[in-house]
Amino acid sequence: MQYIDGCVFLFQSGSCSINRAISELKELGYNGMVACGINQNQIPKDNFQIIPARYIKGANLKKIQRDAQDPIGKDQYCMAQAGENGLNRSLLTLSGVHTLCDLHIAPKNAFDRYCAQLAAERNIAVDIRVRPLWELRGVSRQRVIRAYEEILLLQNRYEFPLTISTGALTPYDMRSVRAVKVLLAEIGMDMDLINRSFSSVPSLLIKNKSVQEIFE
């Protein structure tokens, strides 16, 4: 079984070196990660799967399109930060994007049925960021849970792929596979979907070769 953390921020975006991230994640039960902040030639030889990624964000669609299709990032995994509904619809039709992320901080109704259908048709994943589930409390946490519940309802109907990430900036942001499974089960994800989502990143890369990403 593949257990891949779908987003870890390494130097300079985060404060964790690649070797420290590998060591920590192995102990936590992972055998791979999507690593924002490195390129292919920085990957050490190890039996731990590392997928270099770029993280694109902003409200300017032309700039996002330019960044996503930048040939410098050819063959990298591309994560696009979600925004309002119109932006998300455009991102889901953009060549080179693999995953729509940060929907938990997007406006209400930012990801609707039409977005879900686009994601399914184009094999673009929606990322479930788990860090807010243990960092937030009270009303803020409930808002995140409701957002994820809505995504899961749409996923059940349209069957677009999901990824699971911690979005770790430091080793202290990482959580074990077991702990993540418990958190996601509490918001209604069944174990089969959780396992499929943990291992979905490699198939996203295979099915969409025009990958790119940028570091902000």
Automatic annotation (TrEMBL):
<dbReference type="GO" id="GO:0004526">
    <property type="term" value="F:ribonuclease P activity"/>
</dbReference>
<dbReference type="GO" id="GO:0001682">
    <property type="term" value="P:tRNA 5'-leader removal"/>
</dbReference>
<comment type="function">
    <text>Part of ribonuclease P, a protein complex that generates mature tRNA molecules by cleaving their 5'-ends.</text>
</comment>
<keyword id="KW-0540">Nuclease</keyword>
<keyword id="KW-0963">Cytoplasm</keyword>
<dbReference type="Pfam" id="PF01876">
    <property type="entry name" value="RNase_P_p30"/>
</dbReference>
<dbReference type="GO" id="GO:0005737">
    <property type="term" value="C:cytoplasm"/>
</dbReference>
<comment type="similarity">
    <text>Belongs to the eukaryotic/archaeal RNase P protein component 3 family.</text>
</comment>
<dbReference type="GO" id="GO:0030677">
    <property type="term" value="C:ribonuclease P complex"/>
</dbReference>
<dbReference type="InterPro" id="IPR002738">
    <property type="entry name" value="RNase_P_p30"/>
</dbReference>
<protein>
    <recommendedName>
        <fullName>Ribonuclease P protein component 3</fullName>
        <ecNumber>3.1.26.5</ecNumber>
    </recommendedName>
</protein>
<keyword id="KW-0255">Endonuclease</keyword>
<keyword id="KW-0378">Hydrolase</keyword>
<keyword id="KW-0819">tRNA processing</keyword>
<comment type="subunit">
    <text>Consists of a catalytic RNA component and at least 4-5 protein subunits.</text>
</comment>
<dbReference type="InterPro" id="IPR016195">
    <property type="entry name" value="Pol/histidinol_Pase-like"/>
</dbReference>
<dbReference type="InterPro" id="IPR023539">
    <property type="entry name" value="RNase_P_comp-3_arc"/>
</dbReference>
